[in-house]
Design brief:
5 strands, 158 residues, 5-stranded antiparallel sheet, alpha+beta, Alpha-Beta Plaits, 4 helices
């Protein structure tokens, strides 16, 4: 397997996707913010001084997905059909799941990963005044569909 972002001389390049058909492509990613139980309670009750952490994080994730081509070198600009950012609390963490969809010639994995990452960092920023021990981790692609390279789904048993 060769790296598609490297040319024959070893220079970085943007991959030419013009020969690929435009198909529906979707991706889902997740990120985790581990926090104190008291921080979780404050976020759920919307008691943070900075405001609604989940509402702001949702918007930040969506905005980040829309700007991936400006943030990550060599990423294509994609017409996003949908971006979703969802939250689920556990006792000591917040799971953020972000999904993106497009009808295009290349996939939306980076858009979903970026949305999950930026949403997690936004929660961290909004709650850091009350919890200095928060940890953002577990950023990974969970699923992708569409395109010639085949579908992918994370096997949680691995």
């Amino acid at each position: 397997m060769s790296l598609t972002h490297i040319d024959e001389q070893g220079h970085a390049r943007m991959v030419d996707v013009s020969a690929k058909p435009a198909t529906r492509r979707e991706a889902t990613a997740e990120a985790w913010v581990h926090m104190a139980n008291s921080t979780r309670i404050a976020i759920e009750a919307n008691l943070l001084v900075k405001g609604d952490a989940l509402g702001v994080a949702r918007i930040a994730g969506i905005m980040a997905a829309k700007r991936v081509d400006e943030l990550i070198p060599l990423c294509h600009s994609l017409p996003l059909a949908e971006v979703r950012v969802e939250f689920e609390f556990t006792e000591d963490a917040l799971r953020i799941q972000a999904s993106a969809a497009t009808l295009a010639q290349t996939g939306v994995e980076m858009e979903a990963l970026t949305a999950a990452s930026i949403a997690a960092l936004t929660v961290y920023d909004m709650a850091k005044a009350i919890d200095k021990r928060m940890v953002v981790d577990g950023i990974k692609l969970l699923k992708k569909t569409g395109g010639k390279s085949g579908d992918f789904e994370w096997d949680r048993s691995e």
